[in-house]
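Recap from last week: sequence in, structure out.
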Amino acid sequence: MNCGTKKLYPNKQIADRYAEYNNNDIFRKDKREMHSYHCPLHKGWHNGHDNEDKNPITRIQNILDKGVDQQ
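Predicted structure tokens:
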């Protein structure tokens, strides 16, 4: 996802707090852990998920799982 569409946090502590809140939500749809990262373009912090799509088998499984969730 483009970081231009992500929420911008003024510091790492606030971004980490939101990531922790999200990761502890038992009803979240995306089970990947969310982490904060610094964005030099926007001069702040964003949250995002680790990119598990590097493994082609995991990527295909994630795509198939999303299709099942939407039915």
